[in-house]
Write a structure and sequence with these properties.
With about 750 residues, this protein is mainly β. It contains two helices and 44 strands.
Length: about 750
């Protein structure tokens, strides 16, 4: 996206306010919600319940009906409904959402994502928590742009805000079961009802298993990329007799066991110079990959209405454990093996005071505290490749413990300076205190003689990262149907310690100054909803990363400039036909002076990878990165990545969906289809590992014989069988990629009662 294109887009955004308002003001005044109008969407993006069309923030809201009709069942699929959101995974178990180019590819204790995930008001710091099933979700709101005031630290790119179904006094529930290709089957259920006066409960669960893998390990003969997962959530809700106090206790647990991650070299030539057999989903390694992720937690939400002020306190505890082991050298020979155990635990408490009612001045006051502890318990890399084949085996074992104590206070107020104009000002002060302790043991097993064990002195460090963030916005309602806004936001991702460094390295805080202007319009008797925003980001101190001999290194990059335009359209063409479309256009480039310390550089063949670092390039000389070509082998050397494209950031994303209901006799048939286009991106700042542009097509046909009591759904995902990746790695053992699921399809039967 060129600068001229941005200027034209900005001009169009500004002039469109008046033009659209003039064309539709009369129609808006006669809008009739009963006449096929779009439903109002209520969000809590400003810690109070408001119409999304009145909030001066770019928001994608996805409700329970849209999720059900579209067949979206996990958080990793949300990008198909929200084009500004890109979602990758790392090692199969770490979720890595990215909004408008802001996110991270890094993992490890103390490494948090700058896109914050909240479930029922609870912040989830561990990136394992960004992957979850959507079995009892009422609504998902994707807040685009920094939310550094009300959502605070690590909301630099935005927020994924999930609201699950609340328990009800009325007894009801639902159940469904499915069967699909690759011998996949499972089901989910939801049950809620009253237990006593003022006390209600709910229970939701989901179970999925896949008996046949997308590929095979052709050395062991076993299927890979298959597994079993389940999750449940239970809630108790107490409401006082006067209705002024509500206490909700919630608990959840999930488990995912899979033969992942599976990585395959791009050109199929291994470090031994041999050719990899099989197809794009197959591997040929010494042992099958393993992934086991277990996580859960509990929360208590206390809300009390003091007439003019609402008090909310949310206390929560969470813990997760991830184990993964795989063979990164992509051969059946013991050259290099990797395993990791990461344990994350956190406690959070947020207190809010929120003004109630429609007043000229509305405000929010609050405080937030968080304790977390992340550990490698341990992380281990082993193989003769580590010693340059000068030994039988070398084992590097590292233990890491990084803790956090975070405190924050925030305030935001909105003042009506006229009947149609509001100004919003918010401030948040955050203090993050981190401690890091790590130890390392290097065991070398020679060809003959005694093992050598080296245990360097344990490392310890502590540092405090304070930061003031803010929000300033102005919104004006041009008519009942048109609202325009402009805002300036400061976002902040906390600094931390690099978890894989020895000795310990400090990672500076990331900050972003975001300027945005947009409008929200309900047109043609509220049958068409069009929201458009343009933005400019100055993004500083990006925590970049690189994998070297199976170990992830994270370090500071100067930053980037991101600017672009996104738009969302919803149209109820007839009472039974709804059309959705979205576009996200983004230009995101690293700033000048980005001399990466260790970026992979292509060399002629993979066998040369056994050479020590920098040999092929003559020491520490800095070269220009060469974008756009994938190679078998790599060595590592300093590289100038100035003005390269940001990692995992497509320049253009488009999506569209159609939902059409046909009445047939006493029943209905619902047709739903999604087309998602991703313009492609680079997985590394060096811009060598490119995911080409790809298109996904999903479709669902649902038959209900009468009402909503029973349904049968035929569904398909990635019907065009498009090959694309979940993760790509520039490794010293060769460039590799992990494949996303191919075409899947099946049948679901469900009932409500």
């Amino acid at each position: 996206m060129s600068k001229n294109a941005l200027f034209h887009a900005s001009a169009w955004t500004a002039t469109a306010f008046a033009a659209v308002a003039a064309a539709t003001s009369a129609a808006a005044q006669t809008a009739d919600p009963a006449n096929g109008a779009l439903s109002e969407i209520v969000v809590t993006a400003q810690k109070r319940s408001e119409s999304a069309q009145n909030v001066p923030i770019a928001i994608n809201s996805i409700g329970i009906k849209q999720l059900s009709a579209s067949g979206i069942t996990t958080s990793t699929e949300l990008k198909e409904l929200s084009p500004a959101l890109n979602f990758n995974t790392n090692l199969g178990g770490f979720g890595q959402p990215r909004i408008r180019g802001i996110g991270t590819n890094a993992t490890g204790p103390g490494i948090e994502n700058p896109v914050a995930t909240y479930v029922d008001g609870v912040y989830i710091g561990a990136s394992t928590g960004a992957i979850f099933s959507l079995q009892d979700v009422q609504q998902i709101d994707v807040l685009k742009g920094p939310q550094g005031t009300l959502f605070g630290r690590n909301a630099t790119g935005g927020v994924i805000q999930v609201t699950s179904l609340a328990p009800s006094d009325d007894f009801h529930g639902s159940m469904q079961a499915y069967y699909g290709n690759y011998q996949s089957w499972g089901g989910s259920g939801y049950l809620t009802g009253g237990l006593a006066q003022g006390l209600s409960a709910s229970l939701a669960g989901v179970y999925n298993t896949q008996g046949k893998g997308f590929g095979k390990n052709l050395f062991t003969g076993n299927d890979v990329q298959k597994g079993t997962n389940f999750a449940f959530r239970g809630k108790l809700r107490y409401t006082s007799d006067d209705g002024n106090s509500i206490i909700t206790a919630s608990g959840d647990y999930s488990s995912n066991i899979a033969t992942d991650p599976t990585f395959r070299l791009y050109q199929g030539l291994t470090i031994l110079g041999t050719t990899m057999p099989g197809g794009p989903y197959d591997i040929y390694t010494q042992h099958d990959p393993q992934l086991r992720v277990h996580q859960g937690g509990g929360s208590v939400n206390i809300t009390h209405d003091f007439a003019d002020v609402e008090l909310v306190n949310i206390a929560a505890w969470r813990k997760s454990r991830l184990f993964t082991a795989f063979d990164p050298d992509e051969t059946p020979v013991n050259l290099l093996n990797f395993s990791e155990v990461q344990v994350d635990e956190q406690f959070t408490n947020e207190l809010q005071l929120v003004s109630r009612g429609k007043k000229r001045f509305n405000w929010v006051l609050g405080g937030f505290l968080m304790w977390s502890d992340g550990k490698y318990d341990p992380i281990q890399t082993q193989g003769p490749l580590l010693c340059g084949f000068a030994c039988t085996n070398q084992i590097v074992t590292q233990t890491v413990d990084q803790s956090l104590h975070s405190y924050a206070a925030f305030a935001q107020g909105t003042y009506a300076i006229g009947p149609s104009t509001n100004v919003t000002v918010g401030l948040r002060y955050t203090s993050d205190h981190r401690k890091m302790n790590e130890g390392q043991v290097i065991t070398t097993i020679p060809f003959s003689g005694t093992n050598t064990v080296v245990t360097p002195a344990a490392q310890a460090a502590a540092k405090t990262f304070p930061k003031l963030t803010w929000r300033l916005s102005l919104d004006h309602r041009f008519s009942d149907s048109i609202m325009g806004y402009a805002s300036y936001n400061r976002g902040f991702k906390s600094g931390s310690f690099q978890p894989d460094s020895f000795p310990i390295q400090v990672l500076l805080p990331e900050t972003v100054d975001a300027f945005e202007a947009g409008f929200k319009a309900d047109l043609f008797d509220h049958k068409v909803r069009l929201n458009v925003s343009g933005f400019y980001y100055n993004y500083r101190n990006i925590q970049a990363n690189q994998i070297i001999q199976g170990v992830l290194y994270v370090y500071d990059a100067p930053g980037s400039i991101n600017y672009g335009l996104d738009a969302d359209l919803v149209a109820r063409i007839t009472p039974n036909l709804i059309f959705n479309a979205g576009v996200a256009a983004l230009h995101a480039r690293y700033k000048s002076g980005f001399n990466t310390p260790f970026w992979s550089v292509p060399i002629p063949n993979a066998f040369s990878n056994a050479n020590p670092f920098f040999t092929a390039l003559g020491g520490n000389s800095v070269i220009q990165c060469v974008p756009g070509t994938n190679y078998n082998g790599t060595v590592f050397a300093p590289c100038d990545a100035s003005h390269n494209r940001l990692q995992n950031t497509p320049e253009l994303v488009l999506n569209s969906s159609v939902d059409y209901t046909i009445h047939i006799g006493a029943g209905t048939v619902n047709l739903n289809g999604i087309v998602y286009y991703n313009g492609g991106y680079f997985d590394d700042p060096q811009n060598r590992l490119r995911q080409p542009a790809y298109t996904l097509l999903d479709a669902n046909i649902t038959w209900r014989p009468r009402g909503d009591a029973f349904f049968i759904k035929a569904w398909g995902k990635n019907l065009s069988n498009t090959f694309y990746t979940l993760q790509q790695n520039a490794l010293d053992t060769g460039d590799s990629r992990g494949a996303a699921p191919p075409r899947t399809y099946g049948l679901t039967i469900g009932t409500k009662f």
